[in-house]
Amino acid sequence: MDNSVLLNSDTEFEIKLPLLENENYELPSPTLMDTFTDRKNRILWILDEVDGEAYEWVKFIINCNRDDKALPVEQRKPIKCVFFNYGGALE
After folding, report:
1. Are 68 and 77 in contact (CB under 8 A)?
2. Residue 63 above 90 pLDDT?
């Protein structure tokens, strides 16, 4: 019994991966891919109401700054924030 998954059945060459228990062979959703691409490119989308959950945005910015700490200012990668919300309040 062949315990593998065929990745490309329509080509001349076969590419097989071993089937492992509890592995996910599905591709991520386009939304999830966009999220990871935006994080890699330091694009922060603020689409929600500004509230106590804003610490996730702050944490992202702090981590970006921490990654660039040893670099001269002119070599640091910019952080882009896109705001599209109706406002909110922080205490």
Report:
1. yes
2. yes
Determine, yes or no, domain membership for 5: no
Structure tokens at 43: 């694009």
Confidence of residue 28 (pLDDT cuts 50, 70, 90): confident
Tell me which H or E stretch contains 31. helix 30-40
Which residue's entry shows tokens 């966009």?
Answer: 34
Domain span holding position 46: 27-83
Name which residue leads in pLDDT, 23 or 43. 43
Cα–Cα distances in angstroms (integers) from residue 31 to residues 9, 24, 26, 71, in the given order: 27, 18, 14, 31
How many domains, in total, are found in the chain? 1
